[in-house]
Amino acid sequence: MDVEALTAQMDRDRASGDAPVMVVGTAGSVGTGAVDPLPAIAAACRARGVWFHVDGAYGGVAAQVPGAPADLVGLVEADSVAVDPHKWLYAPLEAGCVLVRDPENLRAAFAYHPPYYRFGEHATDFLELGPQNSRGFRALKVWLAFKQAGASGYRQMIGDDMRLSRMLAAAVAAHPSLELGTQQLSITTFRYVPDELCGELTGEARDRALDLLNHALLDRLQRGGETFVSHAVVGGRTLLRACIVNFHTTEADLTALVEIVVATGRRIEAELRARRPHATH
Ligand SMILES: *Cc1c(COP(=O)(O)O)cnc(C)c1O
Q1: DSSP per-residue string spanning 183-236
Q2: 58 alpha carbon to ligand 1 midpoint, in Å?
């Protein structure tokens, strides 16, 4: 997020009679794990009396890990934060969670008292805290895992995932047939680049050819069943995306991933060449 553009927009809105009510910052974007300048956004919101929410669905929990992006410290200033224990807290699907600084805000927003609901003072009345009343006990699996791993266990596991992601980025950067896109938190993006193509095409034509090739590669990898990567679009380019959020992932898995991606890429290249015998790419 461009904080200068944000503040300018909020001030323009105010001046024209509109009332900005909330800003949502991102602590770990879906595609690349990018973290917004959360402390600066928090300051801009506080100065204008605007609610500051952070989408930390994936990356929020990395804040506690040494070596995490410094901007994550801005989470402490948020009015509300969304986190998904089913992502980097390793809980089985699904367990979404919203944390609010002042729980009374939830009561003020959601509480209502129809005559057919009367739970009394002794129980936590979820009807007053959100849109959902009847609900399963999702919190149990999150609580149990915390009991088992503890905060230190989580710090260890999340830190390991980030370290593995950086190792993958290094392996990709060192490989002649792969091109590194981004590495942030535990997400590494990259693409397969055949040697031949590099020499023949440049600029936009090269990017479009690589987009097509990597789309085909993504599809083949996902159907193949050996490894699973998703994709990210970064600066208009299609990249393969490896997001490590499993504490069972090891260095050997990353070595295998690189080998499988390159071998599959070569196979697709060969097929393309066989199908178009007169084309050189
Ligand atoms: C996964 C994700 C979401 C969506 O969350 P779900 O609860 O899994 O549907 C929203 N924002 C970010 C940044 C995410 O990574």
Answers
A1: EETTEEEEEE--HHHHHH--HHHHHHHHHHHHHHHHHHHHHHSS---EEEEETT
A2: 6
Sign of CA dihedral 224, 227, 228, 231: negative
Query: In Å, how far are 8, 10, 41, 45, 53 from 5, measured between CA atoms?
Result: 5, 9, 11, 13, 18
Residues contacting ligand 1 via CB (< 6 Å): 26, 28-30, 55, 57-58, 84, 96
Q: What is the mean pLDDT of residues 179-190?
A: 98
Token readout for 246 is 């499993």
- Are the beta carbons of 106 and 99 closer than 8 angstroms? no
Q: Give me ligand 1 centre to Cα 96, in Å.
A: 9
pTM beyond 0.85: yes
- Mean per-residue pLDDT for 47-51? 97
Q: Which residue has the higher pLDDT, 271 or 186?
A: 186
CA–CA separation, 175 and 238 (whole Å)? 19
Q: Are 184 and 34 in contact (CB under 8 A)?
A: yes
Amino acid 14 reads R
Structure confidence at residue 279 (pLDDT): 52
Query: In this structure, what token pair is assigned to residue 98?
Result: 């919203």
Q: Which atom of ligand 1 is nearest to the CA of 86?
A: 8
Q: Does the pLDDT value for residue 198 go beyond 60?
A: no
Q: Which residue has the CA at smallest separation from atom 12 of ligand 1? A: 57
